[in-house]
Amino acid sequence: MRAYILMIGTFDTKEAEFSYLRDRLLDHGYGVISMNVGVMGSPDTWAPDIEAEQVAEAGGVLLQELRHNGDRGQAMETMAKGAAVLARELFDEGRFGAAIGLGGGGGTSIVTAAMRGLPLGVPKVCVSTVASGNVSSYVGTSDIVMVPSIVDIAGLNRVSRAVLARAAGAVGGMLEAVAKSVEGGEQPVVAATMFGNTTPCVQACAALLEARGYETIVFHATGTGGRTMEALISQGYFDGVLDLTTTELADELCGGIMSAGPERLTAAARNGVPQVVSPGCIDMANFGPEATVPERCRTRTLYRWNRDNTLMRTNAEENRVIGKQIAEHLNGATGPAAVLLPLRGLSLLGREDGPFRDADVDAELFETIKAHLKTGIELKELDTDINDPAFAAEAVETLLMLMKEREHTLHDEGEITNAGNSPQ
Question: Would you say 257 and 223 are in contact if contact means Cβ atoms under 8 Å apart?
Answer without folding.
Answer: yes
